[in-house]
Design goal:
The chain has one domain. Helices cover 84% and strands 0% of the residues. Helix 1 crosses helix 2 and helix 1 runs antiparallel to helix 3. It is rod-shaped and about 85 Å long. The relative contact order is 0.15.
Length: 129
């Protein structure tokens, strides 16, 4: 995403442009977050299936603890777990970026409201309203 800065003492036009930028970036990031969430879900399903297969493969282990341990050190399970952790990490970063843009949007919207109040109060002083 583009670097985003709100100028000091922004004009109403600059605030409106900032709102537009935030809204556009939020809409783009929502699609990206959805894709990463889907990838994380797919990775989790893959991990669970491979873990179940590894447990069945090691069903002859003497105890359930040993069966689980052998399943967890299975190479395909380790690879799937690594992929799951990576997918979850990417999803979390994208989700955090979305939350950041949403916070920026709220902040700019509040600034717009304050600017409108300033303008209204300034006009009221001159119009006697």
């Amino acid at each position: 995403m583009d670097k985003f800065e709100i100028p000091e003492n922004p004009t109403q036009l600059q605030l409106n442009q900032s709102l537009s930028t935030c809204a556009n970036n939020i809409s783009k990031i929502i699609d990206i977050v959805a894709k990463y969430k889907a990838n994380a879900s797919i990775a989790q399903t893959k991990y669970k299936r491979l873990l179940a297969k590894a447990k069945i493969k090691n069903a002859s282990a003497k105890t359930a603890t040993m069966q689980n341990a052998l399943a967890e050190i299975d190479e395909s399970v380790i690879t799937a777990q690594d992929e799951l952790e990576q997918a979850n990490a990417i999803f979390l970063v994208a989700e955090a970026e979305l939350e950041g843009w949403q916070a920026q949007f709220v902040a700019v919207r509040k600034m717009c409201s304050l600017k409108e109040t300033e303008v209204k109060n300034g006009l009221d002083r001159y119009t006697g309203g």
